[in-house]
Amino acid sequence: RSAGQLIVQKRIRRMNRKISVIVGTDFACWIPFIAVCLLHTLEVLDATPWYGFFSMIVLPLNSVINPMIYDPNSLLSTLIGRVLANAKREGSGNNQAENIEMKPTRSNQPVT
């Protein structure tokens, strides 16, 4: 493989990870809401008290998380990347988690 192909493959893997995280957070926020709405529609439970919780806490939380995931320089994006990298290392038997150092990115440095 050429160096160019390796760079492209690395970018594709990084984008696939990011899309997986975005889909996972969307799933985690929306599926419980959909399930409660479905149970309410089927008259299994009265979900009226839950609508406020979902509309004021869970769904806006998803809206806050998504931009942080999209921005590659955000602290959340950096942490998610490191967690995934650690999980990959642990899966391969090469755990170097103790050597990882938190370094600030441009987006979370104070403006002077």
Structure report:
By secondary structure, the chain is an all-alpha fold. Helix content is 71%, strand content 0%. The chain is built from three helices and no strands. It has helices at 3-41, 48-70, 75-92. Helix 1 (3-41) packs antiparallel against helix 2 and helix 2 (48-70) packs across helix 3 (75-92). The longest helix is centred in the N-terminal third of the chain and has 39 residues, at 3-41. The chain is elongated, with a radius of gyration of 19 Å. The termini are far apart.
Summarize the structure.
The protein is mainly alpha-helical.
What does the radius of gyration come to?
Answer: 19 Å
Topology as a string of helices (H) and strands (E): HHH
Number of strands: 0
Which shape, going by the Cα principal axes? elongated
Helix/strand-derived category reads: mainly alpha
Averaged pLDDT? 78
Q: Note the quaternary state here.
A: single chain
User: Helicity, in percent?
Assistant: over 70%
Low-confidence stretches: 95-100
- Strand content range: under 5%
Distance between the termini: 45 Å
Largest sheet: none
- The count of helical stretches stands at 3
List keywords for this structure.
112 residues, 71% helix, mainly alpha
How do the helices and strands line up, and which of them pair or pack?
Elements: H1 3-41, H2 48-70, H3 75-92
Helix pairs in contact: 1-2, 2-3
